[in-house]
Design a protein that fits this description.
54% of the residues lie in helices and 0% in strands. With 69 residues, the chain is mostly helical. It starts with a helix and ends in a 24-residue tail after the last helix. The model has no long low-confidence stretch (mean pLDDT 89).
Length: 69
């Protein structure tokens, strides 16, 4: 997508979600979305070998209960 298409997408999405978005804010959101899309394409293009394993899922430890404190 080019810059104008991204901006049109941001404006249409804001309207669909009934989010107030002035022109300055819409352009800033479109700029960041465009940058994110470029980063995502770079990550998708990186080929991983079959022996590379995904990272473990982070699971925080539960808070200590009041009884054990």
């Amino acid at each position: 997508m080019n810059e104008e298409e991204v901006l049109a997408y941001v404006r249409a999405t804001a309207r669909a979600l009934e989010l107030p978005l002035d022109d300055t804010r819409a352009r800033a959101v479109a700029l960041h979305l465009g940058r994110t899309a470029v980063l995502a394409k770079a990550l998708e293009a990186y080929v991983l070998s079959p022996e590379v394993e995904p990272a473990e899922v982070y699971r925080p430890a539960p808070f200590p209960s009041q009884e054990s404190a």
